[in-house]
């Protein structure tokens, strides 16, 4: 899984790449079969919609599900991000976003790096999402919306939305979204289960509610360069991981092999050695933390 020069240039231009049917239906069945058991559990890693029942997102499944631990180490997902950044990456976040049929709620317009900076103290946007469709994504079941080229705006001012959904998010105001769409338009990558996409941490995106009778489950790996690890332990460790060791990939056929194990995955502990080794662009100082707190308080 090596990106071509043309793909790298396209990513710089648009802020995302889409790979239809990159994984087989057999591989997706292995993952899909695991999801119902995870969503049935009432554990702190699983965020539910406002009804308190419908699963919205499940964090850190790679730490207790062997098949999702294998996905988190899959070379087709990890290698392109390592290639783009030119250094090892660690798992900042792992989530199974289940926009359930009829009841899956909206994800407001946002940049992921806005949350990673404000809540986690991530120094620079040297992290991105790589995502895989577990279900077919079509125009009816809440596809992800991208604003191409919006990553080139850098970090956009955002407010902390604590009311719209069950999950707090740093979101953009409507006028800014209008301006960005006027420049770059909107796209909604759609395709069969097994399709993969990777997108820049500053790419503005969101998704509508799912009014259709079809589930739309997407798994996201948020991979961050080791040198750019987070500086703030504000959010729970299953949302913003504390272990900064590089992801060690498995064989390409790992999802279909019973003899390959994804677990054990390193736990949520802080890796002090990784912190000492890192040479990040800025330090997460007390002054920076205080400024972030003041910004959050003002937004609320």
Can you walk through the features of this model?
This protein has helices at residues 5-14, 25-32, 35-40, 66-72, 75-85, 112-120, 174-184, 272-277, 286-299; strands at residues 16-19, 46-48, 55-59, 89-99, 107-110, 127-133, 145-146, 159-161, 169-171, 196-200, 205-207, 216-225. It has 300 residues and is an alpha+beta fold. The strands form three sheets. A seven-stranded antiparallel beta sheet has the order 1-10-6-12-4-3-2. It has a three-stranded antiparallel beta sheet with strand order 5-11-7, with no helix packed on it. A hairpin with a 7-residue loop joins strand 8 and strand 9. Mean pLDDT is 88; it is low at 274-290 and 295-300.
* pLDDT averaged residue by residue: 88
Major sheet summary line: 7 strands, antiparallel
**Secondary structure tally: strands:** 12
Q: Per DSSP, what share of the residues sits in E-state strands of 2 or more residues?
A: 15-25%
Strand order of the largest sheet: 1-10-6-12-4-3-2
Termini Cα gap: 43 Å
Low-confidence stretches: 274-290, 295-300
Number of helices: 9
Structural class assignment: alpha+beta
């Amino acid at each position: 899984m090596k990106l071509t020069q043309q793909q790298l240039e396209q990513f710089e231009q648009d802020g995302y790449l889409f790979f239809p049917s990159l994984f087989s239906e057999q591989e997706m069945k292995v993952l899909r079969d695991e999801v119902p058991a995870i969503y049935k559990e009432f554990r702190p890693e699983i965020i539910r919609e406002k009804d308190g029942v419908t699963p919205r997102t499940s964090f850190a499944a790679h730490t207790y599900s062997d098949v999702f631990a294998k996905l988190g180490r899959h070379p087709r997902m990890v290698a392109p991000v390592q290639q783009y950044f030119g250094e090892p990456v660690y798992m900042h976040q792992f989530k199974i976003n289940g926009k359930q049929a009829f009841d899956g709620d909206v994800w407001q317009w946002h940049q992921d790096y806005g949350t990673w900076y404000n809540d986690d103290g991530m120094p620079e946007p040297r992290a991105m999402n790589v995502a895989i469709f577990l279900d077919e994504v079509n125009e009816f079941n809440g596809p992800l919306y991208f604003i191409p080229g919006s990553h080139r705006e850098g970090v956009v001012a955002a407010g902390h939305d604590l009311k719209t959904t069950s999950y707090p998010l740093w979101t953009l105001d409507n006028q800014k979204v209008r301006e960005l769409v006027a420049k770059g338009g909107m796209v909604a990558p759609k395709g069969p289960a097994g399709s993969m996409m990777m997108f820049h941490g500053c790419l503005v995106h969101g998704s509508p509610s799912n009014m259709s009778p079809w589930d739309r489950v997407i798994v996201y790996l948020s991979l961050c360069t080791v040198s750019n690890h987070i500086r703030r332990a504000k959010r729970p460790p299953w949302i913003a991981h504390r272990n900064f060791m590089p992801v060690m990939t498995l064989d390409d056929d790992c999802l279909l092999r019973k003899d390959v194990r994804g677990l054990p995955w390193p736990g949520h502990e802080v890796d002090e050695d990784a912190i000492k080794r890192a040479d990040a662009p800025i330090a997460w100082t007390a002054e920076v933390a205080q400024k972030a707190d003041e910004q959050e308080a003002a937004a609320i």
